Amino acid sequence: PVKVSKICCIGAGYVGGPTCAVIALKCPHIQVTIVDLNQARIDAWNSPDFNVPIYEPGLVDVIRGCRGRNLFFSTDVDKAIQEADLIFVSVNTPTKKSGVGAGFAADLHYVESATRRIAAVATSSKIVVEKSTVPCRTAESMRTILEANSKPGCRFDLLSNPEFLAEGTAINDLFAPDRVLIGSLQTQEGKDACASLTEVYANWVPRERILTVGLWSSELTKLAANAMLAQRISSVNALSAICEATGANIEEVANAVGFDSRIGPKFLRASVGFGGSCFQKDILNLVYLSESLHLPEVAAYWRQVVEMNEYQKARFSKTVVDTLFNTITGKHIAVLGFAFKADTGDTRESAAITLIRDFLSERAYVTIYDPKVEEAQIWQDLQEACPTTPLDSIKKYVTIVHSALEACKQKEAIVIATEWKEFKEINWQTVYDQMTKPAFVFDGRMILDVVQLKKIGFTVKVIGRGDRL
Ligand code: NAI
Fold first, then answer.
1. ipTM
2. pLDDT bracket for residue 104 (50, 70, 90)
3. Domain shared by 149 and 94, yes or no
4. Whole-prediction pTM value?
5. Residue 469 in this model has a pLDDT that exceeds 50
6. Which of 77, 78, 92, 278, when mutated, tests ligand 1's pocket best, judged by the most ligand atoms within 8 Å of its CB?
7. DSSP reduced 3-state for 306
8. For residue 457, what is the enclosing H or E element?
9. What distance in Å separates the CA atoms of residue 333 and residue 76, rounded to the nearest whole number?
């Protein structure tokens, strides 16, 4: 097996950035270059004051630890490819917006163009590692492209090494992963390439946590893991609807269910719905794959996980309207949180976007506060969510502010859309004093102290809690 001394990572996003920065930190003997076509993103990674382009707890410390030592960020994709022995392809794979499989299939053109670039510029043999989440058998297409375009004397070995980090806890997840999964062809060359990558991870990951499997198993495992995680959320959200209708309490139910060691306590939190760039996209990928394999029942089964999530968001919006005396037209609502979950600035598929779109369609006024999301990002997301409304008209109804207290002032209702810790620590008495009465709070994340809020005078609605307490 080749001993890896230079790594290139194509794609400096939420996955490529943290993942390869941690490799650099843990493997001082390996030179790691992370490249991207996006100059602004690379400039941010290189910024002298470590103003890196993504918010992730602990990330800046990792970058400080090795940037300029054995970690480099660059837009010179070709040079980094040429120098590397091992190349991670960590580009985005969004859901296709048009053409065959639109709305379901993964758009693989970024993966393909990165692969073609590798084939075009490589002058020596490379191990190419598929890090992006891709449908089953994408590695095969990559291999075909590489082999069809390789120069004499250059061989390419393909590995699948999906990433299981969760945004918000990425650095901890990378430092101590539950497992690292490496898929390869079961040929001698495939096994050798797998051994080379295993040696990189073995610098800090215990060997028993490095699983080696076939290429297709590895690709399918990533889709399966996300589908099963999302399925737990949709299951608990489906139960939360029953709780609200009966007076049961989803926290009590989920807690008691999770005590069963066969089920376990994690990922059993009801909420306004899951978001993030991955769950929906990857399940739709699985649905598309199942349909292409003529397995319509399997497709329908997984599709329901996404449908339940849409239902949960719609149900929450409806609760807000119903509770505010069946109309929110002209009313003022504060939405606390815009990121898809706490401890990230990422807003992709955030439930907050859907809620705000629903409120705007009722012509309510919305004031938004999020501690980490940039204002420009919020405007972009709202414009995408309301494509037929000019941004100027959206801006007449939406205000973005810089503190929770400011957001809540003189509002009729407060909606918690993201579980930021600071929302628990708000001075709720002050908020109450400055609100229009009756004052409503809708906790879409089950983070607030309901008893205390009720004592202050709020009317509180929590996901998964009936009124008949
Ligand atoms: P991202 O959009 O943050 O980053 C992708 C980067 O690739 C962008 O900066 C883009 O400019 C760059 N890029 C695209 N084509 C390129 C090319 N040909 N050459 C050079 N750079 C190019 O995406 P993110 O979130 O990092 O996701 C990457 C992959 O990892 C996706 O397949 C995703 O499904 C998967 N994944 C994401 C996780 C997450 O939490 N965000 C977790 C696990 C996997």
1. 0.97
2. confident
3. yes
4. 0.95
5. no
6. 92
7. helix
8. none
9. 47
